[in-house]
Amino acid sequence: MADFPTLDFHPLRDRANAPTLVQQAVDAVVRAIEARVLGPGMPLPSVREFARAHDISTFTVASAYARLVSQGWLLARPGSGYRVAPRAPAAAVAPTPRPWQPPTPGAEWLLSDVFADHSIPVKSGCGWLPGEWLNETGLHLGLRHVARLPGARIAGYGHPYGYAPLRDAIAAQAATLGMPVEPAQVLMTQGVTHGLDVAIRTLLRPGDAVIVEQPCYANLLALLRLAGLHAVAVRRTVEGLDIAELAQAVQAHRPRAMIINTVLQNPTGTSLTMANAYQVLRIAEQHDCWIIEDDISRELAPGVAPVLGALDGLRRVVYLSGYSKVISPSVRVGYALAHPDVVRDMARTKMAVGLTSPEIMERVVHEALREGRYRAHVAGLQERLALAHVKIARRLADLGMAVHAEPRAGLFLWARLPVDGEGAGANALAQRALRDGIWLAPGSYFDAAQRDLPWIRLNVAYSDDERLWRFLGDRANRAFHAGAAA
User: Are 422 and 428 in contact (CB under 8 A)?
Assistant: First the structure.
């Protein structure tokens, strides 16, 4: 240590809030490098010398050196110890703020770039809850639980069907919905969209016709196009599918499947009535048609609503759900329930196109479900969303914007624009909104034919923002004057 520059390192061992000894050693070396006490290429003392000089363990020093190497501050060379890296990492410098530039909207932006674009100030068109609304406590407990596991427990790929304890918990929950299933009927997926993809690849073939709702989930339409399938749109009413249209479409197109968002549908917010659900199942039975049930928003719906998988006994229904709406979208954990033979085939598809789903995140979700506060969290979400629905629906009414339904639950309201001089569709409005830093989701996103419809989807959890209402208010005033002039 005689030739080694003196480090400003005084280990704090007794303070409750002090960093770990490893982090204190790392910070001391980084300070010396940034202050140029240690220059590029200079050697550091051996692990034993550093430990002896500062009365800490060799394990602590070895861990600190390894962390400094991984962060780029040091180089480790066999036989010559540790030296300062030639170019230390640049100190973090706050970027110079730049004027906000709006993205270019369109299907490609909606389906991919929007998830990487965090620059939009007002996200009233998004499809997820604000971070502060999510199950932060459960998520943190789950992450801490996984962090304590031995590496050998989480080093493998995991089971093709997914993490067994979580599948057991899902099977128990499914029974409360009228679907008594065995764990072998539960297949973990990376969210409901992944479940849709796996089900489509397993049950359908290019050229098949598929019944979709009008309007429907935007990503589903992209999945169908990629799979070479023919989407046949059937109008979604406040009670569910338009049964007359459905009967006509099934007779004319002989579809292999129907894909139905049962409860709090995206984008309309509507839920199937029991009568509508029975009629849909009757038509599917008569025409030997699969039903893929997207039930991602079930836990956001207070009260009782039909479950197609329960009414059918999972004979021709593949039931999909997940945790992106109540725990966090970043966990990417969903699941499918189906007949054992269908689940087996879906597991093979899942493994062929992406191997196993991430067991680490499935463990996190399992802990979040069992930590004791999950049901209270869901109840709190339902109450918070109900209040937001009332407020946003009232503001839409003040602007003369009719809503398709008032569910007072879930994320979405589907609102019709007043007619103005800009034309009947919402695309131009959405483009202009983006220039003002406001994300609106226009009707064309949710239309099988991508028509420019006079509808927008609003996420009530993100829509209590005066910038949005000033923008829509200016538009409503122009619509009023255009109507008066006509």
Answer: yes
Q: For residues 215 and 239, what is the distance between their CA atoms, to the nearest angstrom?
A: 14
Smallest CA-to-CA distance from 197 within 333, 346, 342, 324 is with 346
Nearest in space to 198 (alpha carbons), one of 349, 75, 413, 410: 349
**What's CA 256's distance to the chain center, in Å?**
28
pTM (2 d.p.) = 0.79
What 8-state DSSP symbol labels residue 115?
G
Question: Whose structure tokens read 């239309």?
Answer: 447
Please, are residues 127 and 300 in contact by the beta-carbon 8 Å criterion?
no
Residue 317 DSSP label: E
SS3 breakdown of the chain: % helix, strand, coil, rounded to 5? 45, 15, 40
- Span 426-465, pLDDT tens digits: 999 998 998 888 999 999 999 999 999 999 999 999 999 9
- Lay out the sheet containing 240-241: strands in order across: 186-189, 334-337, 317-322, 290-294, 257-261, 209-214, 230-237, 240-241
Listed in sequence order, the DSSP H helices in 218-297 are 218-226, 243-253, 274-286
d(CA 272, CA 278): 10
Q: Which of 67, 53, 58 is nearest to 5 (CA)?
A: 53
For residue 457, report the phi and psi dihedrals to the nearest 5 degrees.
-100, 130
